[in-house]
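Everyone, study these two lines:
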Amino acid sequence: MADKNWLSGWLKEANSEVPMINDTAVRIRAGIMLAIPLFMGFTLFEAIYGSSWVVTGNSVVDTYETDMSGRILYQVEAIRQTYDYSLQTIILFYGLFEMLVGMSTRTAILSPTIWVSKFLARYRAPDWKLLAPKRFAWSFGAFMISICLIFFNPDTFAEWVNFVARTDVLPTTVNYMPSWIPNVLVITCISFMWMEAVLGFCAGCALYKVAVKLGWVVEPCEACNALDFRTSKSSEN
């Protein structure tokens, strides 16, 4: 008795030796997941470029003095701005979960976005593509999410590293990661996911092709190592 393909519309065949997934559903999923880096982008903008102080109107007092430029000086009571990234951490962990479970045909069933995407793509003709390049792209996405998790939780990560190293390798009172790193990663993630969802261009798959040609990646299937991205659609037969 053949195994039932619970992810029909996402996977071409449940037990295929060369897994293939529906690129139409993949693009829809990328559009859904795009909400995560967009939210992180707004958070980073506020954290890095926003004001570090909170000043209430009742605490502002006119000193009746001016500076060298003639501007009026005020005396204020300000509170140092503190940020709670609990929500961002939960969202990033969910995004990491989505990246990881989508890489395997056995764990893809656990992904809510895959179920939603294949449902939304049910009236469109499937566009079957190899899973291997997508797996590589999602691995890259998982790496970027992990770096962002460290940026938002530097003290927790530092405590883990220091515990394993048995010494104070990383500081626990300051954010040791330069702000440009998560900024670049978020912009990259937004760009890649937008190109996937809107243009149908998988930047991670293109990087995979380069890695295969350079011999950095070797897949057990011949088709995975003989990719040709000049064709827009894979054969459905």
About this structure: The chain has one domain: 20-52+83-225.
